Amino acid sequence: MTTPRVFGCVGAQLIICAVACGQTFNKRFDPFHQGYEQVAFGIERNGENGFAVTGTGYFDDSVYLYTIPFLLRLDANGQVLSENKMIGGLSSIYGGGWSNSSQRTRDGGILIGGSTYNPGDIQNGAIIRFGPTGDSLWIKEYGDGVGEWIGRAAIQTKDQGYLLCGETASIGVVDGFLIKTDSLGNEQWRRTYGEPQWVDYITSVDTTADDGFFVGGNFRISQFNSELRVIRTDANGEPLWTKLWGGPYNEPVAQVFTKANGNALVSGTWGYAPDFAAARIYMAELNASDGSIVWQHEYGPSIDICTLYSGKEVRPGEGHIATGYAFEPNTNFFKGQLLRTADNGDSLWMRNYFYYDSLMTDGVGEFKDVIPTTDGGFIACGFTWGSYTGPTPPNYSQDAWVVKVDSLGCIVPGCNGPMGITSQITNMGYALNVYPNPVRDLLHVGIKLPIGFKTEGPLVLTIVTTDGKLVRQESLPTSAWDDMQIDVTGLLVGTYTIHLSDAHTWIAGKKFVVE
Predict the structure, then answer these.
(1) pLDDT tens digits for 268-307?
(2) Which residues sit opposite 306 in a β-bridge?
(3) Which domains does the chain have, with CATH numbers?
(4) How much is the pTM?
(5) Residue 186 neighbours by CB under 8 Å, 6+ apart
(6) Burial class for 334, CB neighbours closer than 10 Å (0-12, 13-18, 19+)
(7) Which of 101, 131, 216, 260 could bridge 316 with an S-S bond, Cβ 3.0-4.6 Å?
(8) Separation CA 326–CA 301 (nearest Å)
(9) Cα distance between residue 253 and residue 227, in whole Å
């Protein structure tokens, strides 16, 4: 028989959670349930508390296998309200292709920038429109009937029209483009940007404080070096200034977002070695008047492969949230990443996330977009595509992945602070169980880890208040995990969280109430 272990608890003052708490969840979605691959490229609000996730996936109508744009409408808890799609005859349609590819329109609908692939190897840029209830409204294509025009993102302009950005191989080697339309998608003008002998990408665009646009992308200045590029244009797409900067190695594209103060927020990567072998994630703010750098920061260690795909202002003057992925040292697989900064770019917290369940212990994934939520938290979308070490369990496909966290980036409130943990498993809540709940004297704790689970150092139990203040922390014995007992008689009445972690990774957490 296993002897229960009793932990003592130090007294703690209960502090009621304010912005840190909020609904959190971790979900993977296989739209239309056919087992094909999907990628979520954008996330927007759907009504006051819901969400709209957009992306691209395969769809089999029993005659053809297409790639199609999808729109998932979710409620505040991540439950699916509707699954919507856009099918274009014999054309494959791509809803996105880099990140932050969608936008909520003023009528409550969803706008996506993407591409179509037509018979004869003709690829056109595309603007895709869904209505407020998820109904497919229309798709318009833009190209020249000969070459390749790839759409990356679209926005609604101040005159109720639309603007599509991307790149084309019809002019020069590869040039960036903007295509402006009216409210019905009829083309009004197009502009291309770049040098004939080099590759030029445009992956993001946003409206400026006046009627112009910030355009973000990449410019390859040599075979082995590409740099960040931001262009400010007037209302007709004519450049007012161009900012080109970077180090001696490759920097991926500059993703732009217009802040409330009118300046451009830039998210990306700073290279430190050829072929992206070493890099740090990077953010900057550019002055709207001339493109000069207001501030710039690099974050985290220099690692093999990382980037920020999308950055947004949380609220005016309250800093930023950005997302992407990191190939962390000593973990050897891609993890979704969130970075929270102050308004001057100083780091507040940075956390990595990966998918884990009873069948798959190292779910590889990336985040492509993120938005702040009305409860003070954040929600990110992307995709998870299977086990890094393999084999991926049967019936697991590459799926859209959505993770909702609180204001401190926690799956369960209280993951911050005392543990010093930045990496979180997103789907292993079953590993930690507590009872009774509410509790008056002894809290029973049971831990059940999957077979083959590997830890870095000893397991640790940590109890914190709902705002992250440490109550108790203790390493666990190597056995007797099925029924441990924690004496909570020294705690004030209120809500706490208990967390299970090892030296580097947050594994699971649960709330409990002392009465």
Answers:
(1) 999 998 877 889 999 999 999 999 999 999 998 888 888 9
(2) 326
(3) 5-15+428-514 (2.60.40.10)
(4) 0.84
(5) 140
(6) buried
(7) 260
(8) 10
(9) 8
